[in-house]
Amino acid sequence: MELIKPDTQIDFVGKMRIAFTVSLIAIAVSIASLVVHGGPNWGIDFAGGTVVQVKFTGGVDIDKIRSTLEGIHLEGITIQQFGTKTDYEYLIRTAESTEDLKGLSGRVEDALQAAFGKGAFEVRRVEVVGAKVGKDLTQKGILAVVFSWIAMLAYIAWRFEFRFAVGGILALVHDTIITIGVFSLLNKEFSLVIVAALLTIIGYSINDTIVIYDRIRENRKKNVRQDLGQLINASINQTLSRTILTVLTVVIVLAAILLFGGAVMFDFAFAILVGIVVGTYSSIFIASPFVLAWERVSPSKRKRK
């Protein structure tokens, strides 16, 4: 099945400067958002503390929940509605961490019962992560992403050329920063699930990039004297139908998860959706055109001959 005709001639390379400018602006906005917010909105996995998930039988005022829990002197309380507005389910977070989960849960339950009455709610789960464990998970999460970049750099440099590898890694860094930036702009929680989503995005994006790189290499063998810009354009156009079909199939699955997967899966699916859109863009407008930009600055041996 081909959505795009093989002889399509869209000038992707001609839009290289515009694409680079848009990407730089998006990265700048992402970094600015992270600076303003003091970094990502770390979830309990990284920040440490305790989270209590409470489901009410009817609508309640968040301010009343907050004032009720302030009376039991929990440290750094934040309250967030969980799921849809009609679920009446809330996540209560506190910087306080303790091994006595039943004791903390009991304090919360007693306070809420006094304010809302017995049977008006249900404590569905209580989780606690120590500050030391959270710091260790943060370091390991960052290392997982960085090591994936390094492994990809080595693989692409071995399979293609170093300039192709640099272009591919820049595209991955671009995808990662913008995805994290979107979460920062929306003030969404950054948890271990999102780290898993980022690693999934990295794998998907580099696969898309390598498909285009493969076609560039094949076309270059067929016509050694063809201008590199024209060759890159032709290669992207030839793989465009495959790229669109792949994105559409993944988006359909993600849409199903977003609609029916519930609140637990929503952020994971949302992160992958953002990453796939940005990753497809970077494979076309960043990774491959960067090879041409490198060629113009430092021509390859073949070009010099």
Written overview of the protein:
This protein folds into 2 domains: 13-43 and 133-304, Multidrug efflux transporter AcrB transmembrane domain (Multidrug efflux transporter AcrB transmembrane fold, Up-down Bundle); 49-129, Alpha-Beta Plaits (2-Layer Sandwich). It contains 10 helices and 6 strands. It is an alpha+beta fold and 305 residues long. The model has no long low-confidence stretch (mean pLDDT 82). It is elongated. A hairpin with a 6-residue loop joins β3 and β4 (89-94). It has a 4-stranded antiparallel β-sheet. It has a two-stranded parallel sheet with strand order 1-6. The longest helix is centred in the last third of the chain and has 36 residues, at 262-297. 31% of the residues are buried. α5 (131-159) packs parallel to α7, α6 packs antiparallel against α7 and α7 packs antiparallel against α8. The two termini are 41 Å apart. It has helices at 16-36, 44-47, 62-70, 101-116, 131-159, 162-185, 192-222, 228-260, 262-297, 301-304; strands at residues 41-42, 49-56, 78-82, 89-94, 121-129, 189-190.
Report mean pLDDT, rounded to a whole number. Answer: 82
Q: What is the number of E strands?
A: 6
Biggest sheet, in brief? 4 strands, antiparallel
End-to-end separation in angstroms reads 41 Å
Distinct helical segment count = 10
Secondary-structure content class: alpha+beta
What kind of oligomer do you see?
Answer: single chain
Helix content: 55-70%
Count of separate structural domains: 2
- How are the strands of the largest sheet arranged? 3-4-2-5
Relevant CATH superfamily of the largest domain = Multidrug efflux transporter AcrB transmembrane domain
The 3D shape can be described as elongated
**How much of the polypeptide forms β-strand, as a percent range?**
5-15%
Low-confidence stretches: none
CATH topology call of the largest domain: Multidrug efflux transporter AcrB transmembrane fold
N-to-C SSE series? HEHEHEEHEHHEHHHH
**Could you say what the CATH architecture of the largest domain is?**
Up-down Bundle
- The CATH class label of the largest domain is Mainly Alpha
The Rg value, from CA coordinates, equals: 24 Å
